[in-house]
Every structure is written in C-alpha cells, then in structure tokens.
Fold this sequence. Notes:
Blueprint: H1 2-13, H2 27-34, E1 38-44, E2 50-59, E3 63-66, H3 68-71, E4 76-80, H4 95-102, E5 108-116, E6 121-126, E7 148-153, E8 161-171, E9 174-177, E10 189-192, E11 197-204, E12 213-217, H5 218-229, H6 239-252, E13 261-262, H7 264-281, H8 285-316, H9 337-347, H10 349-375, H11 385-393, E14 396-404, E15 407-415, E16 421-431, E17 434-438, H12 459-475
Parallel strand pairs: 13-17
Antiparallel strand pairs: 1-2, 1-4, 2-3, 3-6, 4-5, 5-6, 7-8, 7-10, 8-9, 9-12, 10-11, 11-12, 14-15, 15-16, 16-17
Amino acid sequence: MPSLLLPLLLLACAPAPAPVVPTAPDAVEMLASAQPGVVLLVAELDGGERRFGAGLLVRQPGLVLTNAHVVRGATRLRALLFDPARRSWSPIDGGIHRTLFEEEGALLDVELVRGDMNLDLAVVRVLGDTSALPILPLRDELPRPGERVYALGHPHESAWSFTAGVVGAIHQGAIQHDAPVNQGSSGGPLLDAWGRVVGVNTAKLFGGAEGLAFARPIELATPMLNDAVAPVVVDRSDPAKAVLSCERAVELSPSLSEPCFSWDSAEDLIWDAARRGVALAELPEGPRARLLAWMREEGHGLWMAELQDSVWRHLVGVETPGARRRFEPPPSVWANEAERQAHLSQSGVEARLRDHVQSFLIQEEARRAQLIAATGVAADLTRDGQAYREVRRMGQRVQRSVVLGELAWVVVEGRNPDGSPYAYSECWTASPTGWVQPFVCPDEASRPDELPPSLLPGRQELIEKLALRLALQTLGLSRQAG
C-alpha cells in the first residue's frame, strides 16, 4: 500500500500546469488575409476635388463601415476594391492619384446607407460584386492598454498599407493608440494581433501630439450595422405612429424616410417667394421678366432641390451623394452690368433692402428666443443640426395627437442633453399613402391653444426669408437673410 500511495501524494503536491495562452498568428500572414477586406473610398466634391479614405467590409453584399467625414459633402461616392494584381504606387511616384487614373474603369459607385456625425461613423454600400472579398471578424471586447494593434488604410496616398503601434488607453467611446494615422487612413480598421477589428480609425491630433491617434470602438458601430441590414417598417397609418416611425427611419437612412415628407406645399411657397423677391428688389420691367422666365424654366427646380438637400443635411448630418444643384439667379437677368449698377445707384433700393434685412433678422431672433422659452428646447433645433441629433439620441416620444380631419397636430416630448424636458408640436397631413409631414403647415392657426408651438417657421416667415435672399442675389449683394 505505501508504495502505491507515494506516487499519488507526489502528484497531489505537484504544481498545476500553466494555462495555455493562444499564440497570435504571424503578423505577415494576418495582414495578408485582412488587407483584401479594406476598400478605398473616393469622395468627389464640388469643383472637381477628391477626398480619399478607407472602409472595411462588414457584411455582404457590399456593406462597408467608414468615417462619416470621409463621405460627407460628396457629390459622388465611389470605391476601388482590393486586387493583388494591381500595381501600387508610392506618393513619390504618383500615389493614389496615379492608381485612380489608371484604374478608372474599376471604380464602383457607392450609396450612403446611414451616417452618424456624432460618432463620425457611416455605413455605405458598394454597388458591385464584393463576394470574393473577406469579411473582417469583429472583436467582442475592448483591447487592453499595451496590446499590439495595426491601422489599415491608405495613409498619405499609400494604398493598402498599414501602420503598427500599441493601445495607450481606453477612453469613453475612444481607443487611444500610437499607430500613425494620416490622411487616407480615416475609416480604416484598427486590428488586434489576431486580425480582429477592435475599432475604426477616426482621428489623429495635430500640433505637438505626434504619435497619438484615436479609433471608435467597434461596439459603437454594431447597432448601426444591425440597423443597416434589419428590415425597417415605416408605419404612417396614424399621426402618432408616423412621427415615431419616421423619426426612426431618418436615423437609420435618409432613403427610408423619403415617403414621410410632402413637398407639395413648397411648390406654391417658392413662387410666392419669387414674386415677393422681385418686389423687394424693385426690379425694372426687363430684369423682372427675365428673372421670372428663368424661374419657370430652371430656377424653381433648382430652389426645390436645394431646399430638399438642406433638410436632409440638417436631419442626418450626412447627405446622400449625388449631383448637387444650387439656386443662384444667372447674370443674364440683367442686360449688362451697367443696367444693374444703374438700378442700384439711382433707385436707392440697396439701403431700403438692407434695412428690411436687418428688421427681419431682429424679428427672427426674437421669435426663436420665444420658441425656446415656450418649448423648453436647449437650442434652436431647426438651425443647429448637431443639437438636433444630440437631442434625438436622448430619445423622443409622442405625448398626444389631435386629428382635425386631414390635418393633425402631434406633441413630441423629450429631454435635452442636460436632462431637462421639452415639448413641441408637429403638423402632419393625410395623404393617399399615409400621414406625411408637409414642408409648410397648410393651417398654422388650427393648432389648439393648449398645445406647445411648432419649432418650424411659419409660411409668411419662410416666404420673407427666401424672398430677401432672392432679392439680394439678384441685385448682386451679399446674403444677409440667413
């Protein structure tokens, strides 16, 4: 028996084996498998300028995560996919500009799915075949300070390259690291040693802070990614459901919320503003006829397109890429420059118009101050898009709705970022497809007295604002009417 017990006692006293720590894969192999999941995004801006950035393929087909500032302001958005056979040029030999010139035929169009300017994140979809490209795995937990990380992208026009560093700290909503991040790297993935995405590279600090960069943790993007692929039902069967459903649609994607808005009321408003603008500019018969003729042929459509663009930019902070048309009366309204100068110098219209502008601005500011006091909002949500998005993230709900035939007033309440409450009313109208929000309420006086006011300007205020702008532009004066 003793001879049998001795080995058992020795085994019991032996130290437990050390846990097996998984070894990170070879960095060369890991990066080689991850690089094809990175895309090159090209944002074409007004004036022919191009902005470059990176994105990572996160879902099929073609769903790419990137920075919102990479796609913001683009008149067209395109992508170049990874191809191991493609020649790569360093900046000293032409860089990305040379690559894009030689590979112009390989560029694919891209559409915006959703953008969040607060997080500086956006989801876009490549309109082409991405099935051969890998989906980069996402890491469930945050990295720890001291971990090795790799920033993939196109830094300083060096397409499909990477930089390496370590995590310096974990902040609220940000990973601090020292892998160099430069122009062209924005929107690219930050990988751990196993090739898992821990964040999206967003920014570096300038001015005495070299070697300090930040990435958004991938967990902040996960809800956006899930929303981007989940089916969204926009219920406009009654005003209260329409408000909440459309608000959610705006948050997820501008295209989803298009049926929520009616632009019919803007048609007549633009013409009323045009006639009022002609009167404010005191135009002689010739310029008046030429301006109104241009409005009928082209100006009305340009103005409508600009109004719609301004609404989308305000609501989502990132507008859908596309041809952007701007409203600006042409110089041909005047027979020649001498005619315009003579009108300004002889009529005295400039002084009267500037006085009118100043009076309008004073009244407008007074109205805004009254609205803020009456509704409790911490800022003018109709002017400050950033404030509107911050308030929206605090949550909103419908307090009550009053239906008056084909028009309804819905009271929306929520909280400011400091936690204080607010409430305002929205005007909605019935349509054959469901309830919609008009650009201008058809009957502002119908709002019951016990309901809080609407944040949106009334019809007459909008007409005056647009008319002042048209008069100033037509006379060649600086804009002062907002």
